[in-house]
Amino acid sequence: MASAKYDVVGLGNAIVDVLAIADEKFLADLGIEKDAMQLIEEPRAEELTRLAREPVITSGGSGANTIAGLASFGASAGYIGKIADDELGHQFMREMMASGVPFHTRPLTEGPATARSIIFVTDDGHRSMNTFLGASVLFSKDDVDAVMVRNGEILYLEGYLFDKEEAKAAFVHAAEIAKAAGRKVAVTLSDSFCVDRHRASFRQLVRGFADIVFANEAELLSLYETQDFDAALSALQADCAVAAVTRSAKGSVVIGDGAPIAVAAEPVKKVIDTTGAGDQYAAGFLFGIARGLPLATCARLGHIAAAEVISHFGPRPEQSYKALAEKAGVFA
Question: pTM of the prediction?
Fold first, then answer.
């Protein structure tokens, strides 16, 4: 097998986030479900963008956030995702390239705008996401950069792509390319909403392609249709080689060979915005895997990244993850 040019190559929805502070009444008045993700159409996206108070506009998208986090750790990473040839699309491309991540997917010149997620953050740090998928899901097998996929030690696939058949086909196509090249495939389930809609496909993906699986507790329970966490964890361990399940303030549980490993969350003085917490956990974990570190250390790196991102507004690192990990003595 040829040596890898990239530690990780990510494939996902290319989205620009519009973040704003909101209170409970604002959410209720607009029919926004708190701490959940709702899919919306372009007119609703325009309306919510207008109503967002003093918004922060920044590149997002779950898989892209993870790739940006990997770059902050010092990893070599690439990204594949669909934008439109518009202002937000150009911003997304600039910000990915500025973080040191190659991004060359051909933009959409006709059709819907670049995807955006209007995220309202309440005083408790919880985020309510309203996502217009736009150009991001008009992603087909032709958009998969086979050379980049083959050159990645790990292919990281974002579950949100499963909402359109063409994007799902591209997702599976990329996994097949990676497997044929002897590479590892990592999958994030993304949201219990996605798991509910595509449970059978996700189970097939986890059993047939995934070497590494990321989920939070709600996604895991939905995948195996149970409220018994231990039973769901056992089922996941039977289906894949390595998995990490995040449990918010409880930390995470990692499974590999042997008994599950519980890893505590890193302390945080104040939670400002939980947007991107799971994405950055995955960045730390994947960095550890790429460096051949023990699973418990991979999880700790994930928690260090998650703790940093929830301490400020926005889904991507403001401090160097590499510096934070070195300060914490992880590499000692």
Answer: 0.92
